[in-house]
Amino acid sequence: MTHHRPSPPVARGTRGAHPIGPILLLLLLVAGLPAEATLVLLEPVEDAARAADRVLVADVDHLSTELHHGAVHTRAWLTPILDLDDPPLDGPLSVLTPGGRHGEVATRVAGSPQLSPGSRVLLLLDRGNDGEWHIRGLALGHFVFHTHLDGRTAVLRDLRGLGILPPPVPTDPDHNAHQHADAPAAFWWHELEPALRAARASHPPSGDSDPPHAPSDSSPAPHEVPPTAPHADQPRPTPPGPLTP
Amino acid sequence: MSILRTPTPRHLASAFAAALLVLLATHAHAFVRTMTCTPPGETGGTLTCRDGEQPLPLYWDAPCIGYHVHQDGLETLGPETTHEQVHRSFATWNDVPCSWLRLVPRGLTDEDRVGYDACGSSRRNANVVLFREDQWRAGDSAPIIALTSVTYIVRTGEILDADIEVNAAHFDVGIVENPFTSRHIVDLQNALTHEIGHLLGLDHTSPDDRFVGDPDTWQEAAMHALTRPGETRKRTLHEDDIAGVCDIYPADVGHPDGDCRLDPTPDGFFVRPSGELRSSCPDDRACGCTATPNHSHGPPALLLLVALLALRRRTRPL
Hints:
Oligomer: heterodimer
Order of helices and strands of chain B: HEEHEEEEEEHEHHHHH
Structural class of chain B: alpha/beta
Number of helices of chain A: 3
Order of helices and strands of chain A: HHEEEEEEEEEEH
Largest interface: A-B, 85 and 97 residues
Low-confidence stretches of chain B: 1-8, 10-27, 209-213, 265-276, 283-318
Structural class of chain A: alpha+beta
CATH topology of the largest domain in chain B: Collagenase (Catalytic Domain)
Strand content of chain A: 25-35%
Largest sheet of chain B: 5 strands, mixed
CATH superfamily of the largest domain in chain B: Collagenase (Catalytic Domain)
């Protein structure tokens, strides 16, 4: 009998994108989604934003890996662009996510968010007992900005690590496949931002380094957030200053 | 009037789509193998493939893989019942005739660290199942039920270590006796069976195959990402889960080292060969890494190595 090492050079059983996306998306809608995940609870965005310790839009500057309590973690260095809490965080910050590459070895944690340098993201953050910022619910607290064909800004929840939505993720929040009753995954930013602000207004002050904020009677007008981080040779907005269209 | 009609382009397109669906339904699987890196262009963070790298599927390169269970178990179930549930979960994946990999219980441990340290001891790198009851690791309120951290060699995809953590700090983890009366309980065996699939090298089933076959059965796969408290159907493997593990470890091909014949020494720890990785270890830390693949080394062997290395360092000329 011929023996061989168990790993073929080509992944078998790994699926690529299918050409019949619309049919697939329709079936996804029809099938519906359970409300909770093995790894994380599939919280609706408003609930997650209410429970999070901090909600902000930030540019991902760069990534590094480190051993945190002996396990490989990725640290993402961020420049805040828009902080939905008042007072806003002062200056850059970093968040820690489980897994990453460390020398010759790497650690994967299914469902862990994968942030890309240069991207602009919406993050729901929790402050861990270790004093570090963590993304709430792994990838479920990570949203990526996209520009729709009509120029509007869409925000997509990162569900790919959980295998919930088919890659590539469509960028149209009006598409039915994203409008599941329990947990929609794509939003128009001009609609989502007021909802997030309202959720934050009912968020209980968290203490420690998070200054409590006073709920506001009148919600501020939505900010126009450019969907991508400015190019390196372009001037950056001064965080967390006002954003212009 | 003839009942035969000339097919229109629309009819042809429909027929083609139907044929395509049948074809995919016949050959496609929903299982997905975990890959070493993510192709550039997709969001992959630090796991994005570098120049010249191709994504490779993860695998264990040994006929049997040992695992340890934290000695404390779950407070609500007690150690014995907890350990029994853990062993049942692993046994589910062992009970697959078309797979040659066997998961072997190696006893209890008080090790509560996860991850892999190429320069660390065999004890440090055991595959462990942990229960976080007082404090969950990533944020105090993060709604995570369980995590599996799989560490591997990027260049080959060989898995070095896999640790499972169960969040009993925020969830009522136990045994679902009756789905109607235990709707708030996260079933331990249900969750662990899923996590062990990650330990073996499987990722979440892909929803882009939802249209293949019966969509209801697709959602019954143990590697389906979603569950609810009270669910127990992931305790048993779906045919797609079986197809996945047998794709990685096909019994009809077998492993070069033969069948699993691990000596079930209760206090032994599985140690991976990691000479290449150890080359960067400082001398004073490398002692604990020395190991032979697929054999268990007890504390006396490690102590002997430590003593020999210490002696060698003392006699080294200045």
